[in-house]
Amino acid sequence: MELREYMSIRRAYNLVRQKTDTARRLTFEEYAILCRLELSGVPIKTSEIADYQGALRPTMTHRTNHLASLGLIDRGEGQVDRRNIICSISEDGKQYVRVLSDLTRGKIPNGQPLARISADRLCKYVDAMGTVYCTAGELVLLSLYADDGQPSTVTGLVDRLGLLQPTVSMSVGSMVEKGLVERVRADKSSPRALDIELTPEGRERAQALAERIYGIVVRRRSRAEKQ
Prior knowledge:
11 helices, two-stranded antiparallel sheet, three-stranded antiparallel sheet, Arc Repressor Mutant, subunit A, mainly alpha, 2 domains, single chain
């Protein structure tokens, strides 16, 4: 998967998530779980979903609890070992996947990567993307890296990431503390005009993340999708 494709979908979904009612709002990781269950066609153990996302079991329990509370997935005990919790997508979950996928593809502007993607194909991308977890701060690093390391303002990052300004500002602050980005004066005549740019350490971290994204394999389109 190309980095610009990854960023295009993440930005689009961030914009959709902002407009979604708080009670129905899903993290990208929860959306990816729904896509995996929808595409699998069979129930999946919670432990297997945790392995798929590289998440700790308590984290996955929290995510699946949230999805179940919204009626988007059904959970039950395994037939062989009752300690195994099996998850399957509900009818409401299937419908919600279609809604989210359609809304997300609608937020990808013409001229951007995957602008003409179908909702079904986007679901496959999101499923594959669920294997790589990125915090908001890491998305900041990737955005700067994807722009050939060029500095950006916080406002520019807000536009490129589709996140709210407070989220971006807090994420930049966190990355500054970690020495991964730095604030540089963009205009000497305006002391408050600061750009954000990657430090050498930040570029190294962003490159490592980008390499993981390049390793994402998206399921091939079926013959029906190609026609």
